[in-house]
Design a protein that fits this description.
Rossmann fold, 19 strands, single chain, 3 domains, seven-stranded mixed β-sheet, Dihydrodipicolinate Reductase, domain 2, 11 helices
């Protein structure tokens, strides 16, 4: 059993602790740090945590603590990592790693210099559906991934600090774009270098300095594109969807909102429905086991298995740094209205990745462009002449096997 210092008694700290303590989990939160004394006491009582404190340093340096989990506002991540690194304790940090790439790089350098195990808590790459989809991609079921589309939209975050740019570092692009970008990296291949981005971001509805809506496209060295769509002004709950298009197949994933559990109530649900749900009456969309379906359970299983076996987790501070660099480029693009390069100071993947190619010879003289069965049962073939480049078509009878 690993004993944990949970830094943060807010919404994400709740999710993390429910995940660790759920299903008779063996890893336990030993001490909770909260900036608010009453909140810390209440959190400790609710989750059966032995100790609480309003001192971050005291929580991290507790002699029984082995792992530090950061579930704090973005402006406190660096301080928490500095304490964990100084104490030589494993540290897992919520997303985004930093408010910008400069902060993220400092955190990466700290954990690597200290030689401590580190994990980037990007829960949405660990949802059960995403894990299964990733296995399909990795086995070659969809061929080479050409394009991904990831969407996260809801009415806005829970806490005041998200809405204050000086604390959060940005708006919806930083808060939720990080999810979508890392999901795309996993599908396309985390060893494929992100080259450039183009992004639109604007403040359309909320009375805040940061952006409340953003769209972006990240182009990778092999030609693949990762598209993201994020919003703090979407009405109707939280919408989490991903699409993957490959040379040999397609995947559609709906992780939240419309996943097969729908209920109508005139009386009201009488309590919590699901994260970001806006109503308790009418048609509502509850979630079975939220910490499982949002990826928290599989995420911590991966993190603590890596900790026990002294290996890297699937998501590390290095991944968090790469995501921060991509988002920095997105912010530059939103201002310039142009494609902007991703300026990686550290890259540990492949260089000069080959371009996506699915060209198939039809015969010695032609390349197959497309093959399609027509309503009359014949097969139409679109062909390209290898010498002249001319595109032609022909038909043949379908072969019955």
């Amino acid at each position: 059993m690993a004993k944990v210092a949970m830094l943060g008694a807010g919404f994400i700290g709740d999710f993390y602790t429910f995940s660790l303590h759920g299903q008779r989990g063996r890893d336990k939160v030993h001490v909770i740090y909260s900036r608010d004394e009453l909140r810390g006491k209440a959190f400790a009582k609710k989750h059966g945590i032995p100790r609480w404190t309003t001192s971050m340093k005291e929580a991290v340096n507790d002699p029984e603590v082995e792992v530090v989990i950061i579930g704090l506002p973005n402006n406190l991540h660096l301080e928490a990592v500095q304490l964990a690194a100084a104490a030589k304790k494993a540290v897992f940090c919520t997303k985004p790693l930093g408010r910008n790439a400069t902060e993220a790089k400092k955190m990466l350098d700290l954990v690597e210099k200290a030689g401590i195990m580190n994990g980037y808590l990007e829960d949405l790459v660990y949802t059960p559906k995403t894990l299964k989809a990733l296995k399909a991609v990795q086995s070659g079921s969809v061929g080479q991934v050409i394009w991904t589309r990831s969407r996260e939209t809801h009415p806005g975050p829970h806490s005041d600090w998200f809405w204050t740019k000086g604390i959060s570092g940005g708006g919806v692009l930083l808060d939720m774009g990080c999810h979508c970008i890392e999901i795309a990296r996993n599908y396309i291949g985390k060893d494929i270098k992100p080259i450039e981005v183009i992004c639109w971001a604007d403040t359309l509805v909320k009375p805040i300095e940061a952006e409340d809506n953003a769209l972006g496209w990240v182009r990778y060295e092999n030609g693949a594109v990762g598209q993201f769509e994020v919003s703090w002004t979407f009405r109707g709950g939280m919408d989490l969807r991903d699409e993957v298009m490959g040379t040999d197949g397609t995947i559609w994933v709906n992780n939240f909102l419309r996943t097969g559990f729908e209920m109508f109530t005139a009386a009201g649900e009488k309590g919590y429905v699901a994260e970001k749900a806006e109503t308790e009456k009418g048609w509502i969309f509850p979630v079975g086991d939220e910490v499982v379906e949002l990826g928290y359970t599989d995420m911590f299983t991966d993190m603590f298995r890596a900790y026990e076996n002294k290996i890297q987790a699937s998501e590390t501070f290095y991944d968090g740094y790469i995501v921060n660099e991509i988002m920095d480029a997105c912010y530059r693009s939103a201002k310039s209205k142009k494609w902007e390069p991703v300026k990686l100071k550290v890259w540990r993947g492949r260089d000069n990745a080959p371009k996506i190619s699915a060209i198939k010879d039809f015969d010695k003289n032609h390349i197959l462009v497309k093959e399609e069965t027509m309503p009359d049962g014949t097969v139409k073939l679109i062909l390209k002449d290898k010498k002249t480049g001319k595109i032609t078509q022909t038909r043949r009878k379908q072969t019955v096997k």
